[in-house]
C-alpha cells in the first residue's frame, strides 16, 4: 500500500494538470481564426483548407511557404481541415490537446529523470499555466509551437531512457549503475526520430543537441567523477553527432527558405547586437512579471545605453554564477543555459520579421527558468527548513496569480479587435498591430475606424507596404481615389514581391482599361503566388481583352481548380468558350 501511494499521487497530479489546463484553456474552442497568419496557414491557403490529399501532402514536403520548411505542421493543419473544415473551434481544440499532452510529457520526463515528484509537478504547472504561453496555444497558426514541443519532449523522454535505464535514475543513484538500458540503440534511434519530427514541425528546436548535453550533466549524471569527465564528455559529444547533423541540415534549409521568401529583415548589425541582451532581459522579466503581453512587439532600434549595459551585466552575473556552481548546483546551470541556448535561433542575430521578440518563443526555453526556480526553492528549504511553509504559500499564490493572468490573456484572443486593440493600448508605435486592427474593423464594415488605424500604421512606419496598401483600399472604398492611388503607388514602390499589392494594381489598371499594364501586374502576382485563384481569373480577363484567348481559358481553368466555388470565373470561361468553341 505504501509503495503504491507515490504512484497514486503521480496519477492524481497528472489528472489535476490535465483537467486544470483543459479547463483554463477551454474558452479558445469558441474563438475564431484571426487575421494575422491564420489566413496564410489555414483559411486562405488552398493546399491546407482542401484537406489531406496526395497533392497537398507532396506540397507540404516541398513547399517553403511561410518562410519555413515544416511539412509536419502543414500536414497537421491539413488533417484539421479534413476533420473540422473551417470550424476554428476544432483547430483550437487540437492545439489545446497538444498543450495538455506537452504538460504531461514534461511532468513524466522530469519525474523519471530526477525522481522528484512534487518539484516536477510544479515545473509542469508553471509551464501549463503561464500567460506567456497563451500565444502558442490560442493561435491556430502557432500549431508549429505545440507540435514541435510535443516531439521535443518525446525526444527527451526517449533520451532519458537511453541514458539512464528503463526505470530512470535519480540524482542519488550510485555512479556504478549502467549508463544505458538493455536496448540502448532502440531508445537512441527513437530520440533521433522524434528530433527529426520536431525539426519538421518547427526548426527552432535545432538547439536540442545542446540540451541533451546539459541533461548528461544533470539530471542524468552521465559525466561522473572528475577523473573521467573529459573522456566522458568526448564520448558524449561523439554520441551527439547524428543530432548535430540534423540540426545543421535544418539550419541550412531554414535559412534558405526564409531568405528565399524575403523574410530575413535587413536590420543592420549594430541594432541586432544591441537588441540581443535587451531581448534576453525582457524575456526574463516577462517570465517573472508577465504583464502587457501582446501578439507583436515593435522593433526598437535605439535602446538606452543603461538598458543595454544593465541587460549585459544581468546575463553575465547569472552565467558566471551558474558556471561557478556547475557541479554543486547543477540544476541552476542546466536551467539557465537551457533558457539562453534555446532562444539563440530567435534572439535576433538573424532577424526574421518585424517583431523585436515574441511570447511564443518562450514556450520551450521557459522550462529552463522554471527548473532553476523550483529546484532553487527546494534548495532553500533544504538549507532553511523553517521556510518551507512560506515557500509553499508563495508558490501556491504565484500559481493562483498566473492562472488569473492567463485567463485574462486568453480573453484577448476572443476576436481580432480585442487582440490588436490591447496590443495598441500597451505598446507604442506598434504599426503591425494598428494595421491588423484596421483590417479587423474593415472586415466588420467600419471603414472610418479602419482608415484611422491604417493612418496610425502608416505614420508609425511609412516603409511598411501592407499598411500603405490597406489604407489605399480603404480610401478607394470611401471614395478618396486620389489619396488612395498615392498610397497604392507607395506600397508598390516598397515591394514588388507582394502578390496582394500586384493584384490591386492590376485590378486598378483593369478598371481604367489599361490592359497591358494590368496583365503585367497580375502576371507578377501569379508568379509570386501560383495558387492565387483571383489573380488567375483577373489575369485571364486581361488576356481576353488583349485577344489572347487560349492562355485566358487556361488561367480561368486554373482559377476554378484552385477555387471550385468561383462563379465569376466559371461564367467568364463559359462565355469565352461560347464565343470560341475551339477552346472547349
Keywords:
Serine Threonine Protein Phosphatase 5, Tetratricopeptide repeat, mainly alpha, 584 residues, 28 helices
Describe the model.
- The protein is an all-alpha fold and 584 residues long.
- The chain has 2 domains: 4-412, no CATH class; 416-583, Tetratricopeptide repeat domain (Serine Threonine Protein Phosphatase 5, Tetratricopeptide repeat).
- 70% of the residues lie in helices and 0% in strands.
- The chain is built from 28 helices and no strands.
- It has helices at residues 4-25, 38-43, 46-49, 54-62, 71-84, 88-114, 117-129, 134-138, 143-164, 184-199, 208-217, 229-239, 241-260, 269-288, 305-324, 330-342, 366-383, 388-412, 416-426, 431-443, 447-460, 465-477, 481-494, 499-511, 515-528, 533-545, 549-562, 567-579.
- The longest helix has 27 residues, at 88-114.
- It is elongated and about 90 Å long.
- Mean pLDDT is 90; it is low at 166-181.
Helix content: 55-70%
- What is the count of DSSP helices, taking H or I runs of 4+ residues? 28
Task: Show unreliable segments.
Answer: 166-181
State the end-to-end CA separation: 80 Å
Instruction: Determine the strand fraction and express it as a percent band.
Output: under 5%
Rg, rounded, reads 27 Å
User: What is the N-to-C succession of helices and strands?
Assistant: HHHHHHHHHHHHHHHHHHHHHHHHHHHH
Mean model confidence by pLDDT: 90
> Based on DSSP secondary structure assignment, what is the total number of beta strands?
0
Biggest β-sheet strands, sense, barrel: none
Oligomer: single chain
Spatial shape: elongated
Total discrete domains: 2
Please state the structural category.
mainly alpha
Amino acid at each position: 500500500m505504501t509503495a503504491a501511494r507515490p504512484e497514486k499521487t503521480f496519477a492524481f497530479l497528472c489528472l489535476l494538470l490535465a483537467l486544470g489546463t483543459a479547463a483554463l484553456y477551454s474558452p479558445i474552442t469558441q474563438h475564431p481564426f484571426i487575421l494575422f497568419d491564420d489566413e496564410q496557414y489555414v483559411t486562405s491557403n488552398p493546399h491546407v483548407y482542401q484537406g489531406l490529399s496526395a497533392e497537398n501532402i507532396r506540397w507540404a514536403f516541398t513547399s517553403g511557404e511561410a518562410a519555413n520548411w515544416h511539412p509536419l505542421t502543414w500536414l497537421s493543419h491539413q488533417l484539421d481541415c479534413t476533420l473540422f473544415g473551417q470550424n476554428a473551434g476544432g483547430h483550437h481544440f487540437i492545439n489545446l490537446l497538444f498543450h495538455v499532452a506537452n504538460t504531461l510529457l514534461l511532468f513524466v520526463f522530469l519525474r523519471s529523470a530526477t525522481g522528484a515528484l512534487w518539484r516536477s509537478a510544479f515545473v509542469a504547472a508553471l509551464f501549463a499555466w503561464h500567460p506567456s504561453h497563451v500565444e502558442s496555444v490560442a493561435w491556430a497558426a502557432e500549431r508549429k509551437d505545440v507540435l514541435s514541443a510535443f516531439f521535443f519532449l518525446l525526444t527527451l523522454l526517449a533520451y532519458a531512457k537511453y541514458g539512464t535505464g528503463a526505470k530512470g535514475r535519480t540524482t542519488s543513484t550510485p555512479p556504478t549503475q549502467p549508463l544505458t538500458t538493455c536496448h540502448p540503440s532502440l531508445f537512441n534511434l527513437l530520440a533521433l526520430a522524434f528530433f527529426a519530427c520536431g525539426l519538421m514541425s518547427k526548426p527552432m528546436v535545432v538547439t536540442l543537441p545542446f540540451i541533451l548535453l546539459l541533461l548528461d550533466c544533470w539530471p542524468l549524471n552521465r559525466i561522473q567523477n572528475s577523473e573521467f569527465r573529459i573522456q566522458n564528455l568526448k564520448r558524449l559529444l561523439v554520441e551527439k553527432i547524428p543530432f548535430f547533423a540534423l540540426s545543421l541540415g535544418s539550419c541550412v534549409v531554414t535559412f534558405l527558405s526564409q531568405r528565399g521568401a524575403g523574410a530575413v529583415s535587413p536590420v543592420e548589425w549594430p541594432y541586432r547586437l544591441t537588441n540581443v541582451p535587451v531581448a534576453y532581459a525582457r524575456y526574463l522579466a516577462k517570465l517573472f512579471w508577465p504583464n502587457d503581453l501582446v501578439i507583436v512587439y515593435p522593433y526598437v532600434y535605439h535602446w538606452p545605453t543603461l538598458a543595454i549595459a544593465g541587460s549585459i551585466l544581468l546575463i553575465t552575473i547569472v552565467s558566471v554564477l551558474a558556471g561557478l556552481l556547475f557541479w554543486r548546483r547543477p540544476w541552476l546551470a542546466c536551467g539557465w543555459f537551457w533558457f539562453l541556448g534555446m532562444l539563440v535561433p530567435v534572439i535576433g542575430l538573424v532577424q526574421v520579421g518585424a517583431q523585436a521578440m515574441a511570447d511564443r518563443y518562450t514556450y520551450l526555453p521557459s522550462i529552463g527558468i522554471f527548473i532553476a526556480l523550483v529546484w532553487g526553492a527546494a534548495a532553500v528549504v533544504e538549507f532553511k527548513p523553517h521556510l518551507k511553509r512560506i515557500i509553499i504559500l508563495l508558490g501556491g499564490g504565484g500559481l493562483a496569480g498566473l492562472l488569473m493572468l492567463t485567463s485574462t490573456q486568453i480573453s484577448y484572443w476572443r476576436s481580432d479587435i480585442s487582440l490588436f486593440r490591447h496590443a495598441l493600448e500597451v505598446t507604442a508605435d506598434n504599426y503591425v498591430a494598428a494595421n491588423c486592427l484596421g483590417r479587423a474593423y474593415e472586415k466588420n464594415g467600419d471603414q472610418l475606424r479602419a482608415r484611422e488605424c491604417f493612418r496610425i500604421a502608416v505614420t508609425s512606419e511609412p516603409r511598411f507596404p501592407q499598411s500603405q496598401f490597406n489604407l489605399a483600399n480603404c480610401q478607394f472604398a470611401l471614395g478618396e481615389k486620389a489619396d488612395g492611388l498615392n498610397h497604392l503607388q507607395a506600397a508598390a514602390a516598397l515591394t514588388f514581391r507582394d502578390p496582394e499589392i500586384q493584384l490591386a494594381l492590376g485590378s486598378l489598371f483593369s478598371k481604367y482599361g489599361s490592359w497591358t499594364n494590368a496583365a503585367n501586374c497580375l502576371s507578377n502576382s501569379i508568379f509570386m503566388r501560383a495558387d492565387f485563384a483571383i489573380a488567375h481569373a483577373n489575369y485571364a480577363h486581361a488576356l481576353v481583352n488583349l485577344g489572347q484567348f487560349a492562355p485566358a481559358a487556361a488561367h480561368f481553368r486554373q482559377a476554378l481548380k484552385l477555387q471550385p466555388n468561383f462563379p465569376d470565373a466559371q461564367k467568364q470561361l463559359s462565355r469565352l468558350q461560347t464565343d470560341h468553341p475551339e477552346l472547349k
